[in-house]
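Board notes (copied after class):
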Amino acid sequence: MKKLVSVISVLSLVVCLSVPVLATDNLSKESSEMIITEDTTLGELIEVTNPETYYSFTEKEREYLNSMNLIDLEENGKDSFETKSQTRGWTPSFAAAISSDVSSPRRAELSYSASLSASQACPTLYLAATGSEALTGKIVSSMGNTRNNSKQVTVANRRGNLISGRRYKVYFYGVVTAPYGLVPPTGVVTSTKYINLK
């Protein structure tokens, strides 16, 4: 009997670890009142939607994030990040990339998911997604996830009771802390997707 309980426990754990996180919105009052404008930076967005994570970054990393304009990232952001070893020359020795998807499975519902994968375990991988009305910039959904000493982090979320037929935008953004000794030590990956809801 103990063996059966142990096997069931292990199988339950394996299933739980292999399924991406699907959660409800963690919108605070501050983030639900935030309007994304042409001047909004990635640092400001993270600070409002996930302050605990924002303040876990070093001061230098926060300055880096606060210098990145969301509109510029939407137009010129990269969905991958490569570093090199200070001793191996120009050969990339580490890479990370983001993949993302949005859909409207039901009337007035927004669904999104993303994964950030790295070629080596990273001290920290942070991945988040923020949904907003495309026209007004009003945040309607936000989800973030951090993994330490990991090669992958995922987010997935659904948000209902939105306005059918309206256009929405989802910003996906990841902050990668590369393994020790690689340059640059921190990188940002982004992806932005639009969808008209059913």
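Comment from the instructor: The first strand starts at residue 80 and ends at 85. The chain has six helices and seven strands.
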